[in-house]
Predict the structure.
Amino acid sequence: MTASGEAPSVAAQRLVGLVAGFGVAGFAVLDGAQFDDLPAALRQAGLLGRSLFLDQGDAELERAGPWLVALAQAPDAADQVFRLAGDRPAAVFWCCIAGEAVLYRHLRRINKARIPAWSAAGRSAPSEDDDGTFEAVLFRHWDPDVLGALMPILDAGQFSRVLGPASEIAYRSEAYGGLKRVPADPGWPVAPAGMLTIRTEQMLALGERRIEACRRSVASYLRDVADGALDGIAEADLRAHVLASEARARELGIVTEAGHCRWAFLMMITRGGVGTDPAVAAFVRNGARLPDEQVEDIMDATARAVRGPIGGRP
């Protein structure tokens, strides 16, 4: 797998060119959850899409699920898809010479994957009495950030299972390095039968990748909202602040990326004081709402105190 590591605008333009090279074998899978009404947006753009959730029996779930769009259906189909997706992590592009029907069947078959039961239960690691069982969960292969986190930890057989009949997958995940390409390798083994199965050591590695991505996002957010105050600060020093903020945030029960961003900002502007204030800790831990929401209240109060919005709120 290759990654661009480029600025978002450059990576986006390279993705456009890459997908153009797929020609009549190009397809997009769009994430309906990123749109108010993706089927309606596709119709308005003059595009036909096929739901990968047809058997759900729930119109709203189908609308918010993944949709396959053939890019050969109109000369401007790829342009329309890029326009619809914008900067959102809303599209994964496939190159499949075997055609739409073959790719559609494959994508439907990989809508679920097997992961260790401890992970399916929401735990970050197995316990001593883990029984080694697996559970089937939704595999959001239409989410570029999911693929950005997952693909680097897979082995050759798992790559083969994901790609199936496709010769390449391409997507842009800013959280995981920008433009990514996953070309098929003739040397890969035959894909194992059944669902894609993610092993325990891979789930642990996936958790670490997600944590690191969150840390990069927090650091980027701090630079965005610091209004130049962090210019000249070494990356090692900024990372040290992010790690210290993260440790205290976890103690307080803050779990979302947005919550970590807000807490790191508060730690920055108070030079760590908010992290040692018992009243703040009590408010965050024991407030009327979840800790992440309590931190948002503190941010709102801070914004009002300085008589202006805090730019770039997550």
Notes: Residues 255 and 286 are 15 Å apart (CA to CA). Residues 210-305 form one domain. The chain has two domains: 2-110+141-195, 210-305.
